[in-house]
Predict the structure.
Amino acid sequence: MSHSFDDADDIGHNDSPNAHFQEVLDARLSRRGILLGGLGAAATAVVGVPTTAAAAASAVVGGIDKLKFAPVAKNVADMVTVPPGYTASVVIALGDPLAKGVPEYLNDGTDAQYELRSGDHHDGMDYFGLSSDRTRRDPLSTRRALLAMNHEATTDNFLHPLGTSARPRPAAETAKEIPVHGVAIVEIHRPRGGNFKYLKNSPYNRRITPMTPAEITGPGRGNALMKTLYNPAGTGSRGTINNCGTSRTPWGTLLTGEENWAGYFTRNSGDNTARGNDKSVASLNRYGRLAGGASRHGWETSGSDDMYRRFDISKTGVSADGSDDYRNELNTFGYMVEIDPYDPQSKPQKRTGLGRFAHESGAFSHLVPGLPLAVYMGDDSRNEYIYKWVSTANWSAGDAERDDRLAVGAKYLDDGKLYVAKFNADGSGQWVELSISNPLIAGYAGYAFADQADVMVNARLAADAVGATKMDRPEWCATHPGTGEIYFTLTNNSNRKVDVTSTSHAQVDAANPRSYSDSYNGGPLGSPGNVNGHILRMREMGHKATATAFKWDVYLFGAQADADTGKINLSSLTGDQDFSSPDGLWFSEATGVCWIQTDDGAYTDASNCMMLAALPGEVGDGAARTLHHVKADGTPLDVTTYVGKTPKPTQLKRFLVGSKDCEITGCCETPDGKALFVNIQHPGETILAADVADPTKYVSHWPGNAGYGNGGALARPRSATIVITKDDGGKIGS
Ligand code: FEO
Ligand code: CA
Ligand code: CA
Ligand code: CA
C-alpha cells in the first residue's frame, strides 16, 4: 500500500572472503539444469560442491562500472517514463485471466473469479527460470520463467461497478476483495524476435489467496498460540495476506513477507475484559490491534460464514485454548512464507522461526559451504527493528539443486536463531539473540514469554525487552553481490523527533539522525521527522553470517536536491538523483546495479514515484558528519552519523518515473540482465466511491491510456507488471 508521510560511489576493493557463489552456482546449474519435482520429470540428484572463485571482487563479474543511460527527469505525467533507448511494456495487469475459460478483464467493476485472475497491487516479485521444454527448473533460462509476485492490497473501489458499499459489507463485494489479495505464480515466455508475454493457460499458473491452506512450520508449529477453530492442532492456517517484499531462496523457492496483516482483523471493544486482560492483550496491542479498532475492509461484517467470521478475532468461545473461536487467528499471520513456484500442488509454509512482524523482503547472506546462512529482515512500522535469522544447519551446496525444495527450506529456515540489531553511536553495532534463556526476555515485565516459540511469535516484544534500536521504518533489504554487505531502506518516519515527548516517538540517533520539516506543493512546513528516508548498510564482522557485531553507515540520504546539504541533503543529491521514501531495494546479480524504488508521499509534488539505478561502494567509504539539532528549549543536540561517499553522476541516476499516484515496487530480471521486470502498484488509488462513475475524476488511467486492456484513455487504472528492455539488446543500466 501507499504510505504517505503524514499517515500511515566508486566500487572499492573487496575484502570479503566469500566469492560470488550464486553466480558460479547459477552458471553450473545452467549447464546441467535442475529437475523439476512433481510435474512428471524423472528425478536425478546432482551432487557436488561448485568451484568458487579463488579471489573475491567487489564488482560483479561482467557487471556495469558506470551508468551510461540519460537520467529520467522528475515528472508527474500519467505514464511510465524510461530513458531513451529503453522500452517498457506491460506483461500482466490486475484482473488478467490465469486459466482457460476465464473471460478477458472488462475493467468495469463487473469482473469476478479473482482466484483465477491476476490479483491487485502487484508488489515484490521474483524470476524462476523454466527449461524450454517447460518440465524443469532452469535458473539461467532467459526466455521462459515463472514470475512469482505478491498482490499486497487492493484499490477496492475499482473492483465494483460503483465503488464499495458501506458496512455491513455485501458478501458479493467481500468475495471479490479477499481473493484479489495474496500471491500469483504466472508462466511467462519470450518468443524469438518478440517480447515477454504471460501464458493464460499455463498449468503452472496459480493464485494463493487469504483462503489457501498453509502449513505452520518451525518453533510455532503446534504451539498453544496457534490453536484456532479452523485448525485446533495449531499446525495450519488459512492463506496469506498483505504480502509486500519477496526474496528468491538459493534453492529456488519464493519467500513472501506478510506486512500489514493486522489491519484486516478486528476485535470488539469488550475483548480485553473477555480475555481477562491476559497476556494476549499485551501482544495484540503491541501488534496494533487495539480493542474496538475497525478492520480495514470490514470483511467480518459480511455474514456468519467462517470465511468472514475469522476476521473478527474477539474471544467469543468458552474453550480454554482458543480452539472454538478466532482469538488466536492473528498469531497465524506476520511471517515469511515459503512457496515452491514449480509445484502448483505445494502448500505455502509459514516459517515462524523468522519472527512475526511487518515483514518486507529477506536478504540472504553470501553462502559458504560448511557454514550457517543468514536471512536479514526489516519490520516496516515506525520505530520498529532490523532482524536476522541464522540457520542451525550448515550450507551444503547440493541443496541448491534438490527437487524437494520445501524440505530444503525446512532445513535452513525452521531451526535456527533470531537476532535483533542495536546500532551504536560509533558506527558499530550488535546482534542480540532473541532467546528465552536471556534474563531480559525471560523476566520481561511487559509480557510473560512461555517458551522459545512465544519469543518468535512475539518477536517485537522480545526485541523491546533487549533494547533494540528503533529504526525509521525498515522496508526492503538486499545483499550486495560483490561485497556481501546488507542494505536496508528506511523509508521515512514521522515519529522521529529531536525532543522525545512520548513513548511513540523516537529521538534522533546516529543511525536515524535526521528530523526536519518539509513543505508540500508550496504549502506550510509540516511537522518535523525523517521526511525522505535513508538507505543504511551493514558489514558483518569478518563477513560472517554468524557474526554478532557489525559496522554500519548510511549509503544515501533521500532528499530534495535543493535542500540544505548540511542538514537534509547529506548525500548532495543532484536533480538527476534526488528521491524520497526509498522502499523496494534489489541488486542485479548480472550487472551489480542496485535498484532503488520509491513509495512516496512527500516529494510527489515534484515527481511521481520512481526507480533509480545505483553503483554503491562499501561501508566506510564516506565520512562522519555531525548534525546540529536544537531542542525545543533552545539547547543544542549534536548527533554524529556516518555518510557514504557522495555518488558521482555515473553512480546514481533516475531510471524510471511511474504513472500518477502509483508506487514502484518489485524487481527481478532475466539472468543475463537484459530484461528487467518492475511493478507499478496502485496507479490512481486515490478515488472516492462516489466518483467511480465519473472517469474524469480518476487520478490515473494507466495502463489503459498506454493501450493496454479495455477502457482506453478513460480506463480504470490497474496495477501491472512491466518488462523493460534495451533497444540494442544490451544489459539494463549499461
Ligand atoms: Fe508494503 Fe512496507 O511496504
Ligand atoms: Ca517538499
Ligand atoms: Ca514496500
Ligand atoms: Ca512503503
